[in-house]
Amino acid sequence: MPSTHILLVDDDTLMRRSLAFNLEQAGYRVSTASSAEDALAMARNDPPNLVLLDIGLPGMDGLAALREYRGSFTIPVIFLTARRRELDQVVGLEMGADDYITKPFDLDVLLARIKAVLRRAQQPAAMPASPTALVVGDLTIDAEAHEVKLRGHSVDLPPREFQLLYVLASEAGKVLSVDDLLARVWGAEYEGESQVVYVHIRWLREKLEEDPQHPRRIISVRGVGYKLEPQEA
After folding, report:
1. Is residue 128 part of a domain?
2. pTM (2 decimals)?
3. In Å, how far from its chain's centre is CA 27?
4. How far apart are alpha carbons 53 and 61 in whole angstroms?
5. Cα 230 from chain centre
6. Are residues 12 and 92 in the same domain?
7. Residues 102 and 192 in one domain
8. 165 and 91 in one domain?
9. Which of 11, 85, 100, 182 is the most exposed, fewest CB within 10 Å of its CB?
10. Strands 50-54 and 5-9, bridge-based pairing
11. Is the pLDDT of residue 93 over 50?
12. What would the mean pLDDT of 6-15 be, rounded to a whole number?
């Protein structure tokens, strides 16, 4: 069985070589690149199973590179960030990498994060059984067909956004806490990672709200959580 392929993108030569060696020792096949441009070209020729992507790269930075990856691949990405300020920028821009880890990091922690992200990517979250589609106002969600329709028009959602919407729709009108959404959509290993919910709520609003800055469908209840309100066509 072929080894899992990791693409490591970092302009720090020493760090790149050291981390690549440790990842290979852990059983991964590793490709490395010092720039986002080189990494994107490599990914097209030899698609990895996961990308470890530094934010502070020369030329195209990690944020721009993630946009390119999201437009061309369905590869999970873990951000490597040297400063908390950079992490705040990632969350603020709602780029939504699959995970992030701050430098300096413990190798065992990084390996655990890699395994968790790969496991989620290889085994998408199971949807609850539903004999019929959920209908919430002008929104229809069919779990079996993995299909969302807004006023009769299809809306393309990746698996996590789809499951988050499904959970909200299954209890439409009821406020669900961030912790509850984390547990039901991402699992126990994401406990405390509330920004993950914020990011995906933002993405859903961009796709489902007429005015994402003033949402009427996915409502925030300050200090409590979120609820999905029916909207008529």
Report:
1. no
2. 0.60
3. 25
4. 9
5. 26
6. yes
7. no
8. no
9. 85
10. parallel
11. no
12. 92
Q: Which helix (H) or strand (E) holds 187?
A: none
Q: How far apart, in whole angstroms, are the C-alpha atoms of residue 164 and residue 127?
A: 10
3-state SS assignment for residue 10: coil
Cα–Cα distances (Å) from 40 to 22, 36, 79, 178, in that order, read: 23, 6, 15, 34
**Sign of the alpha-carbon dihedral angle for 81, 85, 91, 92:** negative
Angle formed at CA 74 by CA 171 and CA 158, multiple of 5 degrees: 15
Does 16 share its domain with 79? Answer: yes
Q: Model confidence over 23-77: pLDDT tens digits?
A: 999 999 999 999 989 998 998 899 899 999 888 888 888 777 877 776 677 788 8
Which residues are CB-contacts of 89 (< 8 A; sequence separation ≥ 6)?
Answer: 55, 63
Same-domain pairing of 75 and 183: no
What distance in Å separates the CA atoms of residue 228 and residue 217, rounded to the nearest whole number? 6
φ, ψ for residue 110, nearest 5 deg: -60, -45
Question: Which domain, by its residues, includes 165?
Answer: 134-228
**Hey, what amino acid is at 210?**
E
Compute the distance between CA of residue 111 and CA of residue 19 in angstroms, rounded to an integer.
11
Burial (Cβ within 10 Å: 0-12, 13-18, ≥19) of residue 47:
middle
How many CA atoms lie within 13 Å of 112's alpha carbon, on the beta-carbon side? 8
Residues 158 and 94 in one domain: no
